Amino acid sequence: MKTLPKNYLFLNELSFFSLKIRKHVLVILVLCTCSLNAQIVNYVNNSGFEDLKHCNSFPNNNRVKFWSGIDTSSFLYQVRNECLNNVPGFSAIYQKPKSGKGFVTGTFLCGGCNSVTNRSYFRNVLKNPLSIGKTYCVKFYVNVKNSSPLGIDGIGAFFGDNTLDTIKYPDIKITYLIPQIKNNTGNIIVDTLNWVEISGTFVASGVEKYMVIGNFLSDANTGTIQIQNPTQQWCDLNLDDVSCVELNLPAFAGRDTAVFAGDSVFLGRTTDVGIDEACVWHQMTSPTSSITLDTIAGFWVKPVVTSTYVVRQEICGMVKLDTVTIYMDVVGIEKLKLLSEELKIYPVPAQDFIQLKISNINLLKEFNLISIYNTFGALMREEEVVFENKTLILKTNDLENGVYFLNLTLRQAQGEKSSKLGNVSRRFVISR
């Protein structure tokens, strides 16, 4: 962990964000956060090629869940995965996965190969069709298989509908599909060790249910650089960490909550490719400084004091922030339950005063706010109190005859805002 400079851009963004977020209505905020936690983030299934249908040596076809060629005859194989017990060095491969435990390899250019099986196209069944008019950020990572004689620039991603199922020769050069995301012409990938990011954005038409990654250029239009073996003209690429995320995805840190000492709470979203690397977490140490915690979509924390966390999310250049505060609940469920059972209000009915009585004064010492509401939920009175004895007298001569509700609350201040961490409610009647 390192301390961020006070003038770091993140703090400026946070200040601007804080001014905006105060304008939101609490009810809307709660509804939105519930929805955010459940929505799809990365639309690509098995985006890191981690989950396999089987761990047998053969067959290789369609071994990776949710991935195949454009049809079932296309050749797709898992290069490295823990369940296969293959390690760097297996089949002339020494690359490690970009993340996780697996990745795949395919042929993106094959000069001199026969006309039937000269290219690989990796098709993914998306979790849901994309939404019309929305902009998506797409990323995936490649490097060159170390035995490949060529580096190439012909790499792209096409999003399509069921018409892909009508393609009869899926392993030949498919130059009639125009990829929405493509590597820049002349940006020839020659790195055989480090993973190179291919990324871009596009606006969905609303019919996209498949993603296909491959080389959609003719051999003549594919830029190449000879790396080794000048008599050979082919290129195999390794592929890993594929993501398709809505560009305007709201940042999500979680909901403000209270925990007991020693408890843990999960912040943010479920981790996934494409969103993990987009999120950087900070813990505020003062209004003008913070410490960096982690780069991940979500993680567990075990605070020892009330703490505020901020997630900075950047998706294809779009930055968003969200905050969450975890309060230390010094009351506890059992204590609230006991207080609810022991707290009594006299007389019944009351006239000009009521008495709050309890046998164990220690149960009340941490409570410092009393609120009185009528039957319509309107706040009639709110005042700070200090419990020093087993009985507290409150005047009620300003209340008309009727039924009222008294809320006894533990309130903890946090900067400009307060949080009600414990609440006990009692009903009383005024009758004169």
General description of the model:
With 432 residues, the protein is mainly β. It is 8% helix and 38% strand. The chain contains three helices and 26 strands. It has helices spanning 9-21, 26-38, 333-342, and strands at residues 67-68, 77-80, 103-110, 122-125, 135-144, 150-152, 156-160, 181-182, 196-203, 210-214, 224-226, 234-246, 257-259, 265-268, 279-286, 289-295, 298-301, 307-315, 318-328, 344-346, 353-357, 369-374, 379-384, 391-395, 402-414, 417-430. The strands form seven sheets. A five-stranded antiparallel beta sheet has the order 1-4-10-7-8, with no helix packed on it. Strands 2-3-12-5-9 form a five-stranded antiparallel beta sheet, with no helix packed on it. A hairpin with a 2-residue loop joins strand 18 (307-315) and strand 19 (318-328). The radius of gyration is 30 Å and the shape is elongated. Mean pLDDT is 81; it is low at 1-8, 18-34 and 413-421.
What labels describe this entry?
about 10% helix; disordered N terminus; 3 helices; five-stranded antiparallel sheet; mainly beta; about 425 residues; elongated
Question: What's this model, at a glance?
Answer:
The chain is mainly beta and 432 residues long.
